[in-house]
Q: What sequence folds into this?
């Protein structure tokens, strides 16, 4: 679907996107992560052909993005707005027509979308009469109209209440089921864990993490297991420390101990195990750790931060 | 991605409709001609009214005649004023065409200055004229008034006429005396016309000779600026409302710019078309009666100037809208370019009076002032503009318009996504060169 190869973009001799390579498969929800100023927006602007890379290629289904049909990609930027004085339906229909729909089809699709996001009654109202949340929903509709195959969403959940977030997620799932691909850029790591199959994290223009979200979390786990049990835990062979609370205990293992041997030992000691899983840190902790490591390079080292995990995971699907 | 005409047309249609549906557009269409009509009415009727007021207040003139030359002069000054003769556009209208108002001023003779001044102070007389003893040799006359009008010298002309009449009264017959007091009242002026022959300068025609080029060139200038302003406003608003980035994923910067140029240019042209329509209804019959026709060639040249002038100014305004952060900032930059477009109108007296002077030729070749200056020169009475100058002016304007379009397209592409910081001039120039 989307193939980004060795893409470089520099401003005033400084690389803001430095040799970034990744792929997004059809129907995938892919997270693009990174701290502020990491180069995410520049990368997205190159994918949408708003900016041209200095080097490297960006292809959509084998064709350069510059040669794609304009209705194939839709982009919801982080900083977004609408024509405040235009009617809601006209605004949406305008986006539809720009994506190649006829005037009639654009209006029909716009109305269908407005019904879907419960804004039918606001179709003939000017955008400025809508609340901020309603405007957010209209902005989402501008992306969905014309059924683009690649949706690029930058912080799409900002300003939405939980109900609308749920509606949004349902819409995304429907689009995904229909074969659309989603590139999601957000700082809400819980949403990445919840929605995304794979992720790419960049920091200061360099790739620092790339792979399946589950694999990334596993890679950053501290060789520990999480155990849910009602039994009281004593010393367990091969376990360095136990932190318990709320019916759950995190057991940090010694280097040579395997999770299987610990589970066996627990069962042998008569512990009633309700659940047993490898402990993996939340993505947010990984994000903070990776970014901090990257920032630490400012004090004495140079070059791309934390490249090792990328090398290890790169290419993994 | 190649530029798509359907997308350009979609952008153009939206820009056009969004603009013409605004209340501000209706206000511009109706309000601007109404404002100009009101200002012209105020200035012309004000002047006529002022003249009548001055003569009305001149009910009695006191005269101290130390020369003794006016002892037999009439004790009444009769001044006829036609209702049109005060207008700046028909100052030389032939008498008898419009009804005249007769103002009568009594003349009261005083033996000395002191008595005359006392009468003036006590408002028994409106003004006091003191004729010196050596008036015939020196021409010294002093006139005293409690106030004087800034805008009319009708009182001075009435008294001058009385003095002229008084000087010859009794020495020549009354007809000659009347002619001496108004020697060139029915003067006919012949000037070299565009046909190469001397033609009688008709007063009404003279008004049209001034008004027509002025209005024509003004319409052209206003339409160019109007379209440019719509562009500036559109781009600045879109930038301010952060709508551009999502649009640019679907439509290229070049398509967006082209669509805006077409759509908002059409909106500007619509305003002018409505104004011309209104003008045709109200002024058309007068033009027909006066035998004034606008040659088709002139209209074609005007259209070419509009298109090229709009391309030039529209491109500049788009570039300005793209590099500034909001409408207020954009206006501050744009005002300088708008001013350039109106330089010919500031110099209208010069351009109409000396249409073939080097400065007039230079202004009509210089792209920012070419449209207004050339239209004034082309429509100025007694002016014959060589064809090569029109061709050169259009060619230079086309080249400048194309250059501005190319530079602005590059600036537009980069500037649209730049928020919060106004780029420096070297940065803008670098974008314009490199894109």
A:
């Amino acid at each position: 679907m989307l193939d980004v190869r060795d893409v470089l973009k520099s401003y005033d001799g400084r690389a803001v996107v430095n040799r970034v390579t990744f792929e997004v498969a059809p129907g995938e929800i892919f997270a693009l992560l990174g701290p502020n100023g990491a180069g995410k927006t520049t990368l997205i602007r190159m994918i949408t052909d708003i900016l041209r890379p200095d080097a490297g290629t960006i292809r959509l289904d084998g064709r350069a993005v510059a040669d794609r049909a304009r209705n194939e990609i839709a982009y919801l930027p982080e900083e977004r707005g609408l024509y405040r004085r235009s009617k809601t339906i006209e605004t949406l229909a305008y986006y539809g027509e720009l994506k190649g729909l006829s005037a009639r089809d654009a209006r029909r699709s716009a109305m269908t979308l407005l019904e879907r996001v419960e804004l039918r009654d606001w179709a003939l109202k000017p955008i400025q009469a809508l609340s901020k949340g309603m405007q957010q929903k209209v902005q989402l509709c501008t992306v969905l109209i014309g059924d683009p195959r690649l949706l690029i969403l930058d912080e799409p959940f900002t300003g939405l209440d939980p109900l609308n977030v749920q509606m949004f997620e349902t819409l995304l799932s429907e689009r995904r089921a229909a074969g659309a691909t989603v590139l999601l850029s957000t700082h809400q790591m819980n949403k990445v864990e919840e929605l995304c199959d794979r992720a790419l994290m960049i920091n200061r223009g360099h790739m620092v993490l790339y792979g399946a979200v589950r694999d990334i979390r596993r890679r950053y786990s501290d060789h520990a297991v999480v155990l849910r049990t009602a039994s009281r835990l004593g010393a367990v062979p091969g376990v360095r420390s136990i932190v318990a609370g709320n019916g759950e205990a995190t057991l940090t293992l010694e280097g040579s101990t395997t999770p299987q041997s610990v589970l066996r030992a627990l069962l042998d000691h008569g512990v009633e195990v309700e659940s047993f899983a490898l402990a993996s840190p939340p993505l947010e902790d990984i994000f903070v750790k990776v970014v901090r490591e990257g920032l630490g390079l400012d004090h004495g080292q140079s070059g791309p931060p934390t490249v090792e995990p990328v090398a290890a995971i790169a290419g993994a699907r | 991605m190649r530029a798509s005409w359907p997308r350009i047309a979609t952008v153009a249609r939206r820009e056009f409709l969004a603009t013409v549906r605004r209340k501000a557009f209706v206000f511009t269409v109706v309000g601007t001609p109404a404002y100009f009509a009101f200002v012209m009415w105020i200035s012309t009727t004000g002047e006529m009214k002022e003249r009548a007021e001055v003569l009305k207040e001149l009910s009695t003139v006191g005269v101290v005649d130390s020369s003794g030359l006016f002892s037999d002069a009439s004790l009444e000054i009769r001044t006829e004023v036609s209702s049109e003769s005060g207008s700046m556009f028909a100052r030389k209208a032939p008498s008898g065409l419009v009804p005249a108002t007769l103002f009568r001023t009594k003349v009261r003779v005083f033996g000395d200055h002191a008595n005359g001044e006392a009468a003036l102070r006590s408002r028994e007389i409106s003004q006091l004229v003191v004729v010196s003893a050596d008036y015939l040799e020196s021409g010294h006359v002093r006139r005293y008034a409690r106030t004087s009008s800034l805008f009319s010298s009708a009182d001075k002309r009435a008294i001058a006429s009385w003095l002229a009449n008084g000087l010859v009264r009794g020495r020549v017959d009354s007809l000659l005396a009347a002619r001496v007091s108004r020697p060139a009242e029915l003067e006919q002026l012949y000037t070299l016309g565009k046909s190469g022959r001397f033609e009688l300068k008709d007063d009404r025609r003279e008004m049209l000779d001034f008004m027509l080029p002025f209005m024509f060139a003004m319409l052209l200038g206003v339409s160019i600026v109007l379209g440019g302003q719509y562009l500036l406003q559109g781009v600045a608003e879109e930038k301010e409302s952060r709508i551009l980035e999502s649009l640019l994923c679907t439509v290229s910067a070049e398509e967006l710019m082209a669509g805006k140029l077409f759509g908002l240019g059409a909106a500007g042209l619509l305003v002018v078309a409505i104004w011309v329509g209104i003008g045709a209804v109200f002024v058309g019959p007068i033009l027909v009666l006066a035998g004034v026709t606008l040659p088709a060639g002139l209209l074609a040249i005007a259209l070419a100037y509009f298109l090229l002038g709009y391309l030039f100014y529209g491109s500049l305004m788009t570039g300005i809208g793209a590099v500034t952060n909001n409408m207020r900032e954009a206006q501050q930059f744009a005002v300088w370019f708008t001013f350039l477009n109106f330089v010919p109108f500031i110099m209208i007296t010069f351009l109409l009076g000396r249409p073939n002077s080097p400065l007039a030729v230079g202004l009509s070749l210089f792209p920012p002032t070419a449209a207004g200056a050339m239209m004034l020169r082309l429509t100025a009475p007694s002016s014959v503009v060589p064809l090569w100058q029109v061709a050169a002016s259009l060619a230079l304007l086309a080249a400048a318009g194309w250059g501005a379009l190319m530079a602005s397209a590059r600036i537009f592409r980069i500037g649209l996504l730049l928020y919060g910081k106004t780029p420096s001039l070297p940065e803008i120039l670098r974008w314009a060169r490199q894109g």
